[in-house]
Amino acid sequence: MVLAIVFGAANAYLGLIIGMTISASIPASVISMAIIRGLLRRNSILENNIVQTMTTAGEALASGAIFTLPALFLWRANPKMFTITLIVLTGGVLGVLFMIPLRRMLIVREHGKLPYPEGTACARVLMAGEEGGRKARLVFGGLALGGVFKFLEDGLTLFPSEISTRVAGFRQGMLGMDTLPSLLGVGFVVGPRIGALMAAGGVFAWLVLIPMIAYFGQHGVVSPATDAISGMDASDIWDHYIRYIGAGAVAAGGIISLARTLPTLWGTLRGAVAGLRIGGDIGNFGQLRTERDIPRVFSIVLAVVALLVIAFAPQLSVGVIGALGVVVVGFLFVTVSSRIVGIVGSSSDPVSGMTIATLLIVATVYRAAGYTGMKGMVASLIVGAIICTATAVAGDISQDLKTGYLVGATPRNQQFAMLIGTLASGVTIGWVLLLLNHAYGFGSKALPAPKAVMMKMIVEGIMNANMPWDLIFIGAASAIVMELLGVESLAVAVGIYLPVFTSMSVFLGGLVRWIVTRKRREDAQADGDEIAERGILAASGLIAGESLIGILLAVLAGAKIQLPTVQIFGNTGSLILYLLLAVWLGWIARRLRKSA
Fold it and tell me: Which of left, alpha, beta for 376 (phi over 0: left; psi -120 to 50: alpha)?
């Protein structure tokens, strides 16, 4: 439960900066083994599996919350902590319960066809439990270094956390980098290809689109619009134009990713209906331990209670329409998510694309039913947040159930563990969001909350018909062009949408992974995989360390406690220190391989 809260808070902080979260399964498994095997002297792979299952609930709930709920703060709706708790708890509980009838079909019957990459990798880590102490040192070492680095740059402000430079020959062209340990870790985890695609999107936005807009603004027909553009710097142009183009590209990329799964979706839905008929008996009597799910009566009663809360809780105010939307659209996308992660993994699960599709459906229905203005926007966003949370949790527990299937766990115990982890992190995530918003402000430079801002724009565009559709369609057309060129548009679109400073840092992390894992011989694949696994553990530590110190600094800011600040290094010094951190990440992975 403690790890669920910690990794939930860390992923919430990370997602509000970069718009994506990182799987907690393997780091949680390693820390669990260090505690259970190292300190408690217990040798139980199933206990480690339960810890890992609980922990990932915090990560999944964080995804559902930070992708959507900051939009409520941007609208000045300012939800109370109890309201946030209701949203994430109902979504998380339904995500677990909706997945239960799918387990036998997706995890058991499709074994060998659906690899569930993170779940399989986590099972290997658990099976190699004798390495737990060494791997735990990787996580804790990265955690300490990432925390110290973050404290020095943003706590004591010894050096800037953002460096930038104008690019000669490009009107208002600019490149730069956020020197944040978490972004370096994210880049190592996602790898060189995704990092390069995000950097390509950033370069396209800041060295192509922004200079073009600035040029046309100064040399076009004189008008109030062009006069306004001529007075903008790169950041202003990004805020007024590029962000909408990026939102259109992300929306189109997410929908394209979703469309690719339609054949899979249809087959999975048919199997799910069959699973409801033959998926399990009421009490699990007579079944093997490894085949037992939560009893059907318990899961149905709990689901009905959650839906009644959604329909009638005054804190939510979404009505029966919202509850019906959660049942129909929620179960649909839970099924999609559970199937997709079996093929491409949780990191590539297009949760944001499914949330966009959800908001398009829900906001249109609410508007047709007479819900307009702020009331309609808030109701649409809350339903979208519940479904987003359910989708993220379902994809996550699918990986956990795959791990359990491979190590011989009891599904029922895992499902109860996920519910407990959901409860633990659900009652604290609201406090984390309120704290971060009070300290930094959602939508600010410190916490841009990119996915939530995009969801806000989509709902506003549907309800108020005031979205700059020309820019949105330009972005969507750009994504289509990328797909026609054979490029995965979603990663590039995220690079367009985020500031280039973020994308370049992620690219640096991916570059480090490429350098230390590239094959010099045809038989070096095993070495490369081992380096990647250990580097990912260290990178996960960097992410967790920075995130936790970021939350600590938010607590100090909320308590009006000011730390002594003095800047010793400028942009050059900050860049050198960041490159040294990157060198450490690559060196530690290769060094441990040689000493293994």
Answer: alpha
Q: How far apart are CA 186 and CA 169, in angstroms?
A: 32
In sequence order, what are the beta bridge partners of 166?
Answer: 174
Whether residue 275 is predicted with pLDDT greater than 70 in this model: the reply is: no
Q: State whether residue 69 is helix, strand or coil.
A: coil
Q: What is the mean pLDDT of residues 376-396?
A: 93
| Residue 564 DSSP one-character state | P
Tokens of 61: 């709930």
Closest CA to 349 of 97, 23, 101: 23
CB 543 within 8 A of CB 185: yes
> Comparing 142-156, 500-514, 538-552, which segment has the lowest mean pLDDT?
538-552
> What is the rounded radius of gyration, in angstroms, for the C-alpha atoms of the chain?
23
- C-alpha distances (whole Å) from 153 to each of 141, 187, 438 are 19, 20, 20
Show the CA angle centred on residue 187, arms to residues 443 and 422, nearest 5°.
65
3-state SS of 254-323? HHHHHHHCHHHHHHHHHHHHHHHHHCCCCCCCCCCHHHCCCCHHHHHHHHHHHHHHHHHCCCCCCHHHHH
The pLDDT confidence band at residue 129, using thresholds 50, 70 and 90, is low
pLDDT one-digit tens code per residue, 201-231: 999 999 999 998 888 877 655 455 555 676 7
At residue 521 the predicted structure's pLDDT band, cuts being 50, 70 and 90, is very low
Sequence-distant (≥ 6) Cβ neighbours of residue 263 within 8 angstroms: none
Give the up-direction half-sphere exposure of residue 27: CA atoms within 13 A in the CB hemisphere: 32
Domain residue ranges in the chain: 2-129+245-500
Q: At residue 221, what is the residue type?
A: V
Closest-CA residue to 346 (of 394, 388, 409, 412): 394
Distance of alpha carbon 382 from alpha carbon 68, whole angstroms:
8
Whole-number Cα distances in Å, 378 to 164, 287, 318, 327, 431: 37, 45, 9, 19, 20
By the 10 Å C-beta count (0-12 exposed, 13-18 middle, 19+ buried), 416 is classed as middle
Give the single-character DSSP code of 162.
Answer: E
Specify the residue for token string 């599996």.
Answer: 49
Among candidates 361, 387, 363, 357, which has minimal Cα distance to 375?
Answer: 363
**CB of 112 within 8 A of CB of 148?**
no
Query: Does residue 93 contact residue 379 with C-beta atoms inside 8 Å?
Result: no
**pTM exceeds cut of 0.85:** no
Q: Alpha carbon of 135 to those of 10, 130, 143, 413, 585: distances in Å?
A: 20, 10, 13, 26, 14
How far is the C-alpha of 530 from the C-alpha of 548, rounded, in Å? 27
CA distance 361 to 387: 12
∠ Cα 13 395 499 (to 5°): 35
Angle between helices 571-595 and 525-558 (to 10 degrees): 140
Q: How long, in residues, is the chain? A: 596
> Tens of pLDDT along 81-94?
999 999 999 999 99
CA atoms 148, 153, 159, 162: torsion sign:
positive
